[in-house]
């Protein structure tokens, strides 16, 4: 069995006056490794023990400034660099609006880090296996007594002398405090099966809960991003109507806007005779015609209507639109061909709106004119 | 000490009857060691029923959506925001007692500080519930915080609602830290006096190994002072920012510069009323009459008369500025408050907040427990209605008469309000059984003979 190892020699005192005097005496006697224990802070004890003022204030200043500066910089980066957004017509960097958040972050950083610093750096907590714990001495001083504990590692420590000294300054119940043997040889290791078990259980619980929340719960009612809604979706059946069809056909005898039936179905000559381009050849109309032409017509007829298709060789050759035939066609005939198709060319009525078709024709006329420019055009 | 209290030149003893330090341990820790009494079981069964009603209503709200509530256009802020502001206000008394009175060296605060701080934390919990429910998609609260996300978006730092998120969460964290730091020495004392092995383990873990060492007290006291120094502007900022939710908007009746001080005074007012009400029961139930004395209650009533008068002044000033400012919408809103469809709420507010607390000018009433209890309850009713009046009247009738509307809360609104009271009092009832309601180490320091005589 190992020998008991002493930590300190302790003495109890009854009143605050006594403990103040005792602390002063201890300090005057030249002891340095000692501590005074009181159930509540006793005024004047810091002076009696000769303690320097706590330096926590410096830490707080640093933490607070860190919070203030980092929050302002962060908000500046967000509003000026990462995602500038005009809000209420104010400047991007409207600093008065940053004051509340900067203040809160300052307070938060300073107070939380202050407490963490104090507990971890100054107190070296959590530590629940200090030799003084669970001693009769500790039980008294945490209730109503005041105590002094002079540690063995004090350079001036001498069991007999210290005992006499404590007696002289009025200490009662002078008792030695020993290290807890069990705590000294730490039985626990990192590979303790109990510890590993807890670790594994925590890992399973955390990953399981994460999986359940993000992959299951988030797709359950009512957290399912409103994916189930009581509305009618296109092409789905519906109980609302007798025929059980959700989509409704137009009311008989009516025509939807922009869906006027084509009057000259299968009659290209009549179309050429009767249809007139309803649009004026303004710059906007021609631009619009160009865009539509390049989208729908150019793959076969070529970008300049020369019949030089990008698909040449894969398809029967499309004709050039600069032939005399097409040039002399009235607008109505071209409109008819686009609407109904011709030979291999399919009908474009369902893809190109009526006005776009007329706009294409204006653009086509521009191409034709450009291709067959007259002498007078150059003047 | 009620007989000697006429001599105001002398400080009255904070703790009556010269108890010994060891007796204090026993008195304060007694509720923690005994099996709860029958009264406690009855009380907690009532509060738990309230809580379950609230939980049911919240569950229905989660499942069905906000359509269950009375909110709609134009009154899109209803009970949820009223309750939020109300509960945040309740919390403010705790920080005032624990931080501001600490800085002002008001030693009488020691007896009630711990309890008031606990109330702060519970009240902020209740308050936090409401904005989260109010968002509508309560499972996406992380959108309230600026975190790097796949949308590449950040929160709008110029919005008072975002300031609120920062203010309330900071307030909660700092209050909890402050409270916990205060608890550490007491937990150590409890650890050393308990005989139960389980309790000892729990207290040991949470007291972190506190040894009552003066080398620790030295830093501890400094940290406590700094925390109090931070909590003081913090508590003022929180209700200021809550008032910004209203004042920064352009709705008539909200767009006023008097809101920050007016809200802070109102918060302290209602908070003190709540602390006073609950403490009356606590000191009775746990034999703490010599620690939480009648003098304490009287001082709290005095704070209520001050803050109540400040609130009354703010009401008068609002009316005056509405007339003096010459803005016809502003003028209409205040006439509408006093004479419109919500006039009953307005006059409830004025009578409960301005008229009844004036009775505290009489010393007899200030020191009579039934009277102060009744006035405390009235103050809290009045303060709840104050928020109701501010939120609802301004929204229901703003600029365009064609878009006016009337707000009628539903049973779900009432159920959630009831549930928040259930949560608050359940937490308090649990708190008084598991933690010391009075700070043991602080009270020991202020009993007679507790400090050296400095000869």
Structure description:
The complex is a heterodimer of chains A (379) and B (455). In chain A, 45% of the residues lie in helices and 7% in strands. The mean pLDDT of chain A is 86. Chain A contains 13 helices and four strands. Chain A is α+β, with helices and mostly antiparallel strands and 379 residues long. Chain A has two domains: 6-184, no CATH class; 268-378, Cytochrome c-like domain (Cytochrome Bc1 Complex, Chain D, domain 2), CATH 1.10.760.10. By secondary structure, chain B is an all-alpha fold. Chain B has one domain (25-153, 249-446). Chain B has helices at residues 21-33, 38-64, 79-103, 110-134, 160-193, 197-207, 214-247, 259-285, 294-325, 328-339, 343-355, 363-366, 369-396, 411-434, 440-446. Chain B is globular and about 70 Å long. The two termini of chain B are 27 Å apart. Classes of the chains: A alpha+beta (379), B mainly alpha (455). The interface between A and B is large, with 72 and 73 residues.
Write the layout of secondary structure elements.
The complex is a heterodimer of chains A (379) and B (455).
Chain A lengths: L5 E8 L2 H13 L5 E4 L7 H5 L6 H27 L16 H24 L13 H6 L4 E6 L7 H10 L3 E7 L2 H4 L8 H24 L51 H7 L8 H19 L22 H5 L2 H10 L13 H18 L8
Chain B lengths: L20 H13 L4 H27 L14 H25 L6 H25 L25 H34 L3 H11 L6 H34 L11 H27 L8 H32 L2 H12 L3 H13 L7 H4 L2 H28 L14 H24 L5 H7 L9
Helix pairs in contact in B: 2-14, 3-4, 3-7, 3-8, 3-13, 4-5, 4-14, 5-6, 5-7, 7-8, 8-9, 8-13, 9-10, 10-11, 11-13
């Amino acid at each position: 069995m190992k020998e008991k190892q002493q930590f300190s020699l302790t003495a109890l005192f009854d009143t605050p006056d006594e403990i103040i005097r005792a602390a002063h005496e201890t300090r005057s006697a030249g002891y340095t490794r000692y501590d005074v224990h009181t159930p509540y802070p006793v005024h004047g004890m810091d002076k009696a023990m000769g303690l320097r003022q706590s330096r926590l204030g410096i830490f707080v200043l640093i933490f607070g400034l860190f919070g203030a500066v980092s929050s302002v910089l962060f908000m500046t980066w967000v509003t000026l660099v990462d995602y500038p957004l005009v809000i209420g017509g104010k400047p991007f960097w409207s600093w008065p609006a940053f004051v509340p958040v900067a203040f809160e972050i300052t307070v938060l950083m300073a107070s939380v880090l202050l407490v963490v610093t104090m507990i971890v750096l100054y107190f070296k907590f959590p530590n629940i296996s200090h030799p003084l714990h669970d001693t009769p001495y500790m039980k008294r001083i945490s209730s109503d007594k005041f105590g002094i504990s002079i540690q063995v590692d004090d350079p001036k420590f001498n069991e007999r002398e210290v005992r006499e000294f404590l007696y002289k300054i009025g200490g009662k119940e002078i008792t030695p405090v020993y290290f807890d043997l069990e705590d000294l040889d730490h039985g626990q290791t990192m590979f303790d099966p109990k510890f590993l078990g807890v670790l594994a259980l925590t890992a399973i619980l955390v990953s399981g809960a994460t999986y359940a929340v993000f992959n299951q719960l988030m797709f359950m009612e009512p957290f399912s991003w409103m994916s189930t809604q009581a509305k009618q979706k296109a092409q789905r059946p519906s109980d609302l109507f007798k025929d059980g069809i959700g989509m409704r056909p137009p009311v008989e005898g009516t025509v939807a806007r922009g869906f006027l039936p084509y009057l000259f179905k299968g009659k290209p000559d009549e179309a050429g005779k009767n249809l007139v381009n309803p649009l004026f050849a303004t710059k906007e109309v021609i631009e619009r015609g160009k865009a539509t032409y390049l989208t729908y017509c150019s793959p076969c007829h070529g970008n300049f209507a020369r019949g030089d298709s990008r698909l040449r060789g894969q398809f029967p050759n499309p004709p050039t639109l600069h032939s005399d035939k097409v040039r002399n066609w009235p607008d109505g005939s071209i409109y008819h061909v686009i609407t109904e198709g011709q030979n291999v060319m399919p009908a474009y009525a369902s893809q190109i709106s009526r006005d776009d078709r007329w706009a294409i024709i204006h653009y086509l006329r521009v191409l034709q004119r450009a291709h067959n420019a007259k002498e007078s055009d150059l003047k | 000490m009620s007989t000697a209290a006429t001599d105001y030149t002398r400080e009255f003893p904070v703790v009556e009857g010269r108890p010994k330090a060891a007796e204090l341990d026993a008195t304060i820790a007694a509720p923690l060691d005994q099996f709860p009494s029958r009264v406690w079981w009855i009380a907690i069964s009532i509060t738990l029923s309230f809580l379950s009603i609230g939980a049911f209503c919240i569950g229905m709200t989660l499942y069905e959506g906000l359509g269950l509530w009375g909110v709609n256009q134009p009154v899109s802020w209803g009970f949820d925001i009223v309750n939020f502001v109300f509960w945040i206000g309740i919390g403010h008394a705790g920080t005032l007692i624990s931080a501001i009175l600490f800085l002002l060296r008001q030693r009488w605060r020691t007896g009630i500080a711990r309890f008031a701080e606990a109330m702060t934390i519970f009240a902020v919990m209740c308050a936090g519930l409401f904005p989260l429910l109010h968002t509508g998609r309560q499972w996406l609260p992380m959108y309230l915080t600026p975190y790097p996300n796949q949308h590449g978006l950040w929160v709008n730092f110029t919005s008072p609602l975002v300031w609120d998120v920062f203010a309330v969460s900071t307030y909660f964290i700092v209050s909890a830290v402050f409270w916990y730091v205060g608890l550490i020495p007491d937990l150590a004392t409890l650890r050393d006096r308990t005989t139960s092995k389980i309790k000892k383990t729990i207290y040991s873990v949470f007291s972190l190994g506190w040894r009552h060492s003066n080398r620790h007290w030295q830093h501890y006291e400094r940290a406590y002072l700094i925390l109090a120094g931070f909590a003081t502007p913090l508590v003022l900022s929180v209700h200021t920012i809550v008032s910004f939710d209203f004042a920064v908007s352009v709705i008539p009746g909200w767009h006023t510069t008097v809101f920050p001080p007016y809200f802070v005074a109102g918060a302290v007012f209602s908070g003190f009323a709540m602390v006073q009400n609950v403490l009356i029961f606590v000191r009775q139930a746990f034999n703490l009459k010599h620690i939480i004395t009648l003098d304490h209650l009287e001082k709290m009533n005095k704070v209520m008369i001050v803050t109540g008068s400040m609130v009354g002044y703010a009401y008068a000033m609002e009316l005056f500025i509405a007339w003096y400012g010459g803005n016809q919408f502003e003028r209409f809103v205040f006439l509408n408050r006093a004479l419109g469809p919500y006039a009953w709420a307005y006059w409830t507010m004025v009578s409960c907040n301005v008229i009844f607390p004036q009775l505290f000018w009489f010393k007899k009433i200030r020191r009579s427990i039934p009277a102060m209890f009744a006035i405390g309850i009235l103050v809290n009713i009045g303060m709840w209605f104050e928020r109701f009046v501010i939120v609802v009247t301004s929204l229901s009738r703003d600029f365009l008469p064609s878009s006016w509307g009337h707000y009628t809360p539903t049973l779900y609104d009432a159920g959630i309000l009831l549930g928040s009271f259930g949560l608050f009092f359940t937490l308090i009832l649990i708190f008084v059984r598991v933690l010391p309601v009075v700070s043991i180490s602080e009270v020991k320091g202020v009993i007679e003979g507790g400090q050296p005589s400095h000869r």
